[in-house]
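hiii so um. not sure if this is the right channel but i have a protein structure encoded as tokens and i wanna go backwards to a sequence. like what aa goes where. can anyone help
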């Protein structure tokens, strides 16, 4: 059980090529073989998660900050305590529109990273 209690502040933050201003921490990664992925994501002020799709389902839960969430061409302002349920193959993005970092949890099924 103790190996499944994760102090996220102690998980190494990393970036992905082509995604400036976006920082991730794997809480549950593909290699954990649990069948899903869970990631803590920080998008810096003035940055965004560009439009993209996935072969699986993604659920994004906004912890703090504000953003414009886009799904299949429709843009909606989102903020803390908002969840975006992104179906398989849906085109989506997030643009940090606030001051400071946009913090979120991203759940993937099947796992992505």
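sure thing!! here u go:
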């Amino acid at each position: 059980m103790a190996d499944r209690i994760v102090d996220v502040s102690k998980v190494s933050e990393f970036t992905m090529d082509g995604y400036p201003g976006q920082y991730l921490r794997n809480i549950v990664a593909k290699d954990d073989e649990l069948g899903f992925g869970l990631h803590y994501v920080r998008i810096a002020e003035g940055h965004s998660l560009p439009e993209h799709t996935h072969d699986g389902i993604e659920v994004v839960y906004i912890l703090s900050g504000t953003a414009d969430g886009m799904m299949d061409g429709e843009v909606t302002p989102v903020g803390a305590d908002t969840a975006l349920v992104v179906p398989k193959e849906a085109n989506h993005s997030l643009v940090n529109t606030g001051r400071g970092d946009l913090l979120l949890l991203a759940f993937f099924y099947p796992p992505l990273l």
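oh and Residues 19 and 49 are 7 Å apart (CA to CA).
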